[in-house]
Amino acid sequence: MADSSDGRSQKERMLAGDLYVADDPELAADNRRISAWMDRYNASQTLGQPERQALLEEMFGSVGAGCNIRPPFHCDYGYNISLGRGVFMNHGCCILDVVRVSIGDLTQIGPGVQILTADHPRDPVQRRRMLEFGRPVTIGANVWIGGGAIILPGVTVGDDAIIGAGSVVTRDVPAGGVAVGNPARLRG
Q1: Which of 32, 40, 120, 187 is catalytic?
Q2: Is 91 assigned a catalytic role?
Q3: What is the pTM of this model?
Q4: The Maltose/galactoside acetyltransferase domain covers which part of the protein (predicted)?
Q5: Average pLDDT over residues 37-46
Q6: Edge to edge, what strands does the sheet with 185-186 contain?
Q7: What span, in angstroms and rounded, lies between the C-alpha atoms of 163 and 151?
């Protein structure tokens, strides 16, 4: 177990980005709740955008007007996700939101994109103790992320940036930047 001598719950430790144990009963209950929601959301293919928007508003931290996430969609908790106005995510996206994920207005995300905040200690002793931690991801406004891209923990992508399809983004991308490849590198 993570040191809990500071009196914080595992959920409080997770939300702070500190080491925590993911299979804690409180977090497991949150995960069951989002799993039931994903069952409903991922069966919503025949619903229109307004009905899916209402479903997003049930579980996400905040949702701007006109958001559209095409099912299937997967996430860890939902309550750490904030979407700006008009965000679009295509089929098969996954957000591991153990800490904050913020996506700005009018950002477009291709199919199969992964946005990951969950990370694991490099120390093998800590990993054996089933500890993990999170680092927030921030994606600016009017960003275009190509299909199959992976955004790793702690990355910030600036406004108006482009992430090429299949890219693995390991470092911040500045506003207006174009990043492609594995690992993603800035072009031009």
Answers
A1: 120
A2: no
A3: 0.95
A4: 11-65
A5: 95
A6: 68-69, 88-89, 108-109, 144-145, 162-163, 178-180, 185-186
A7: 9
Nearest to 17 by CA among 127, 132, 130, 102: 132
Q: How far apart are CA 96 and CA 125, in angstroms?
A: 23
Token readout for 38 is 């994903």
Alpha carbon distance 62, 39 (integer Å): 20
- Write the CATH number of the domain with boundaries 10-180: 2.160.10.10
List CB contacts of 161: < 8 A, sequence separation 6 or more: 140, 143, 144, 173, 174, 175, 176, 177, 178, 179
Type of residue numbered 126: Q
Write out pLDDT tens, residues 87-127. Answer: 999 999 999 999 999 999 999 999 999 999 999 999 999 99
d(C-alpha 91, C-alpha 110), whole Å: 8
